[in-house]
UniProtKB/TrEMBL annotation:
Matches recorded under PROSITE patterns: HTH_ARAC_FAMILY_2
Keywords, comma-separated and alphabetical: DNA-binding, Transcription, Transcription regulation
Designated name of the protein: Putative AraC family transcriptional regulator
Taxonomic lineage of the native organism: Bacteria, Pseudomonadati, Bacteroidota, Chitinophagia, Chitinophagales
A GO molecular function held by the record: sequence-specific DNA binding
Pfam family, any one: AraC_binding
Signal peptide: none
Amino acid sequence: MKLIPVRQIAKTPTLPGTTGRFRIRDLQHVLNGKDLAQDHHKHDFIFVLAVQQGNGHHEIDFKSYEVHNNVVFILRPGQVHQLRLTAGSTGFLMEFDLSFYQPPKKALYKNHCTMEPVQFEKLHTHLVTIAEEFTHREESYQEAIKARLDLFFIDYIRQSPNPSAIADTGNNYQQEQFEALAALLEANISNLKTVSEYADLLNLSSYQLNAITKASVGKTVSEMINDQIILEAKRQLLATPNQVKDIAGHLGYEDASYFVRFFKKQTGQSPEAFRKNSK
């Protein structure tokens, strides 16, 4: 069973007593005058791509986006993506793990945002300052970076013209529980597939949990479970050469034929047809 490649942040010098990993790079240095073409993979860190000028294509968990001027992409750990960038693109690529800095949850569920030039410039200014702090590494530079990250994510949420994937209901408890469920689904979908199991993990009743998901995204918990199974199946089908029976086993299905029927019912095509049609 081949696993989806997981990339990690390259080791960077750290000061005694500091935790976590962080780095930020100018896109022109990353590209070095060449086109960038990355196959499907995922990260164990937060990935922020801010393109000031450029072209390309970005696929995040099988949603396709065109890369163009004044666009920002933010990926959570575990999301699968494929990136194409043309030589000469400008902007920044920033990477950090959650032990270094934890962004607002609302920002992490907004993978993509296209901005007006004035809006983007404000974010770009924060990134320039962060890059300078990271390069010079003067006293307390990590604290300065985290302070600028606070401002970056505030402006990302505030200036974005695109609605969040999660409805802003004003209910912080509801949003926290929904995000906790999303994280549990990502981590446990191969082993846990019932509403009651996730409700127990969150110390809620199935009724309470269903009320939260219906208010947040208009779906039942069962629908979210099914969505997560299909998402992980698609990740495996497109990012690995694994056979369908092995993918079924990875997702906790002893009967591969049952998994095939389930996948077809949810998507309208068999796993093999999805793989072939998506190439």
